[in-house]
């Protein structure tokens, strides 16, 4: 594999890892506050549909992104209502959101656009524009640095850079702010936080709302940046891959970025090479495309025991009187 092919694969990795990174950070923040969220997939799917639909109708991609974030936060608050206020089972609430999203997106898309559960193809201002970084053209022909800066880092949609920026911001919020300290404490020992006079319910709703915003951005990028419209079940298990990456990263933002780039790389390699020779064995394209999902199972089987989730995760908090 020559250097330019490697550059193309890594550039593709950046794009493919972006929705995973948003979703992984969303799950990480929610679970750090003690609210398990299996519904990342469903929220991304509804956000992807909403972004593509509103962008097509309005002709402006950013109105679509705003709509995607709005609907994703609304679904997050539904999850919060079920699991925080009514103390329902968090896993079942998340699964319900996934089922709801899978059905409702296709039904509404068919009703609105009559194209078999998909939106019309997006073009012009209804799609995310590519951004060229400063001096990308000037540095293009410089050996090594040029292909990396111009070929890999430059020329992506705005949300790719927003996703990368969210990693240090999430780390800073969780580990360097009072809000982050309280958020982590709510996930470990909510009774102690309550005793200190801080609202456990308020903090958990805050975490769930942030989770909704990030899932909204993930879905919006999926249908208006990575693709040119919405198609049925287009998230294709990315919400669950993000959960696997989060567990692999042990609920730490910087490690999460590394984990999602690993998954993105596998998908990019599967897209770039139709089949690969490994020690004389020819792997078909289907085996390559299955690699991210196989890795998900391997990681969950190998790391769930070793990765210790927040102690109060998955349990509703009942205030003692």
Automatic annotation (TrEMBL):
Coiled coil: none annotated. One of its GO terms (cellular component) is plasma membrane. It is a multi-pass membrane protein. The keyword Membrane applies. GO terms for molecular function: transmembrane transporter activity. The keyword Transmembrane helix applies. The chain crosses the membrane at residues 48-79, 91-113, 148-174, 207-231, 251-270, 290-308. Keywords: Cell membrane, Membrane, Sugar transport, Transmembrane, Transmembrane helix, Transport. It is found in: Cell membrane. This is Simple sugar transport system permease protein. It comes from Roseinatronobacter thiooxidans.
